[in-house]
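Box 3.1 — From sequence to structure: Alpha-protein kinase 2
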Amino acid sequence: ECHVQNTAREYAKIYAAEAEPLEGFGEVPEIIPIFLVHRPANNIPYATVEEELVGEFVKYSVRDGKEVNFLRRDSEAGQKCCTFQHWVYEKTNGSLLVTDLQGVGMKLTDVGIATLAKGYKGFKGNCSISFIEQFRALHQCNKYCEMLGLKSLRTTHQKQRKATSMKSKNLPNSSIVKKTVPKKAREPRDFISSEH
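Predicted structure (token representation):
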């Protein structure tokens, strides 16, 4: 728990250094530190300690991506958390994602990290790789993503899906059933992703 949160905290510091100087960006989310304390006289000899957050506790993102949270999408803190996720994803070439962002205002705690199966630079997260795939498919850029010059994931995701579908059409002994369509009915179509 300490290792994950403090690793995410280091990414948040680098993100803040890039975002804060940008005109109009404003305050940046901070992941608070968490400490491991040894208590030898106690029945449970180890405990974690962190700053108490006072105020409305909000989940800006969740590990499984299934919860729809309007505070995440519509609030400044929520948008900046989504931008932070996008920034980390881009900086690590899609190998690591900070997720489960929650807290009070811009102070966050109890975060999770998803990495590719082999990890990222020796670090393995505590969340499934599926969270990275869900993020890539569901993330909607906002004005803070644009301010940081982050690349849209929609375009990348669409290209990957097109490439995958083209590969499966070209495979010998493919289990895909081809339908014959009269020549008149054939028209080129652009791939359109559905918004979630």
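Summary of the box: The mean pLDDT is 79.
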